[in-house]
Design a protein that fits this description.
GO terms for molecular function: metalloendopeptidase activity. This is M23 family metallopeptidase. It comes from Trichloromonas acetexigens. This protein has 285 residues and is of the alpha+beta class. It has 2 domains: 102 residues, Immunoglobulin-like (Sandwich), CATH 2.60.40; 171 residues, Glucose Permease (Domain IIA) (Distorted Sandwich), CATH 2.70.70. 18% of the residues lie in helices and 38% in strands. The strands form 4 sheets. Strands 13, 14, 15, 16, 17, 18, 19, 20 and 21 form a 9-stranded antiparallel sheet that branches. Strands 2-9-8-4-5 form a 5-stranded mixed sheet, with no helix packed on it. A 4-stranded antiparallel sheet has the order 1-3-7-6, covered by helices on one side. A hairpin with a 2-residue loop joins strand 4 and strand 5. It is globular and about 60 Å long. The termini are far apart.
């Protein structure tokens, strides 16, 4: 009888916790995004919530807060518009629908350039092998979803005017190319580049396209990328805070002049860095 009473008590507690979670509310900010943008999902509850959101075939852990939890949602620049359902999954595996993120198409600007053929489409076998090695390395880096705490603030790495925007459609020598997967800043050579958010440096080195590059892991598949640097002021495994100097602006790699290319990956998806700064900050630290 005592065992039965304990069992009934445990079941009652579990049902109470589950009912409490189901009685709470999911809020999205914003409620509608475009491909390549991000949203903040807030699970509003009477206390910290341990669980995950299922979104676009991925399980995203909630960052516990005093009143529920939160998570960053994002979709790749090439994702299809539509309604993307959200489901809450509790530690016991119980799962139910809690909302929908609406994704609408967005018209992106277009740029046409005429450049030397070798600059646009390298033919040298050694160069092609290098590009393939570097692409594989970057895919491996961005596939890791570490336990580094997600930043609660995200800011611009420099305070200079912006050049090419995120999502810019580029036509090089009459041929469509991959859209611009970052934001360019027209920064003078030597400008100090700060980390957009707290995290850990996971890569520094010279890449064919990006030149001297630093990559920071911000946790759960969120990475920021800083390209075409003239010099590096950070090292792999270094912990950085908001605004920690990573390097200085240059024109290394495939670049026509000094500028900073700033990109962000979220669980493998190309997302707009400015969408993050809109949600979690905005100005240079």
């Amino acid at each position: 009888m005592k065992k039965l009473n304990w069992l009934l008590l445990l079941v009652g507690l579990w049902l109470g916790i589950t009912a409490l979670a189901w009685g709470d509310e999911l809020r999205l900010e914003p409620e509608v995004i475009a491909p390549g943008e991000v949203a903040l999902a807030r699970w509003i509850a009477s206390g910290p919530t341990v669980g995950e959101l299922r979104f676009n075939d991925k399980l995203i852990p909630l960052e516990p807060g005093e009143e529920g939890g939160w998570a960053l949602l994002g979709l790749d620049l090439g994702a299809d518009p539509g309604d993307y359902p959200l489901r809450l999954r509790l530690p016991g595996g119980t799962e139910r629908p809690v909302g929908t993120l609406k994704v609408t198409a967005k018209k992106r600007p277009e740029e046409r350039l005429t450049l030397p053929k070798a600059y646009v489409s390298p033919q040298d076998p050694a160069v092609l092998q290098r590009i393939e090695r570097e692409s594989k390395l970057l895919r491996q880096i961005f596939s890791v979803r570490s336990s580094v705490p997600l930043p609660t603030a995200f800011v611009l790495p420099v305070g200079d005017p912006m050049g090419s925007p995120f999502g810019l459609r580029r036509i090089l020598n009459g041929q469509p190319r991959s859209p611009h997967a970052g934001v360019d800043f027209r920064s003078p050579r030597g400008t100090v580049v700060g980390a957009g958010g707290a995290g850990r440096v996971v890569f520094t080195g010279d890449l064919y396209y990006c030149g001297l590059t630093a990559i920071v892991d911000h946790g759960d598949g969120l990475y920021s990328i800083y390209c075409h640097l003239e010099s590096l002021d950070c090292a792999p495994n270094q912990t950085v805070d908001l605004g920690t100097p990573l390097g200085r602006v240059g024109s290394t790699g495939r670049s026509t002049g000094p500028h900073l290319h700033w990109g962000v990956k979220l669980r493998g998806d190309r997302v707009d860095p400015l969408a993050l700064t809109t949600l979690l900050g905005g100005k240079k630290s």
